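fyi for ur records
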Amino acid sequence: MSRVISGGSEAAVDRSRRDFLRAATALLVGLNLPQTSLAGGGQHGAGGSGQRVVVVIFGGVRRAETFSPEGLENIPHLSRDLLPRALFYPDARNEGVTAHFNAISSILTGNWQRVDDWGKLAPTTPTLFEHFRKRLGAAQSDTWVVASNKALTSLIGASSASEYGPVYGANVVFPKQLMVAAVANALRAGRSRNMADRAKIEAELESMLEAGNYEGLGWTVFDGADRLDPRVRATIEEAITTFVRGGGPTSGDELTFLVSREVIRKFSPRLLVVIFSDVEVAHFGSYALHVGGIRTGDRLAYQLWQEIQGNSEYQNKTTMVILPEFGRDPDGSTTNGFFNHRGDTESTRSTWMMALGAAVDKPQIIERPIRHVDLCTTLAGLLGCPPMESQGARLAEWQV
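which gave:
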């Protein structure tokens, strides 16, 4: 593959990575955590014995704003609370299409996908959801995608592969689309002044649930597009109530987190994928809001880990993985730097990944490059699935 790389900027990336690795290694050695203090420590034979997986995917973030000496202030929870107990890969590479639908479907299938960037076509090879459900007989309630990203559609939950497809797919919910649709509905009906009142916002969101056009919202949940399973409806309504009445920040990722938390509490799925995308405000040119999205994602990922640790269905038998879809373009590039993620550069293609919990024998930093497609085949083994056709390789450091 040809590379369009600026030598000076890439050298700076390498220096920054080395500086971070030295600091992180010192942190791990200095803490010298005993094995019994690690979440999931000492658990073996993860396989098909009830192990659970939670994957948290961020939108595009560069190492410069995250795991670099200058970026650590934006990720206090990832760097201080989670890194010391994690398997950390500082060079996790997206070698495929750096657009949202293709990047996420590549992670979820273990094969580089090159379909429509806006989710008009399903992935061409089976997703982990389909493989898990078909091979192990898992119920649909065991597989979920909860996502903020507007570039995704319900097709992210299942492939177009013959003998697989939606019958083996995941539940897919886009809480942010529910919020946007509710506001748009209020504007069309001339009720925009109501949106200053949190109680009225709650009513508008719930009225969208009453309307029943879930297909229009891009959802695929249990009983199809015309009605929601009562348990799912109650889950979403509870999340809406918490979101609106909580008094805290009200971004799309906040609502995605609350829905994910309710799904964990109500359904205890064995395979949950949560996708945060507040960072994609970068496309509008606001660096401050982009960094704010990174900080929100850092906090929400940590809160999700705390939720897992406090839930008896998940504690000590769950592996949580956190990774970005890709980086962003380097400053000074012809694609407007952090605005976009179109360049064939290290800044865009090289990200990071961390794994926590049951599959982690001991915390360590793995300096060799890995690829995003390596994750799916590794998770398949962790869940006890037979090998799947994948361009990825199993990550040897995991307890699988």
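The chain has one domain: 7-31+49-382. thats all i got for now
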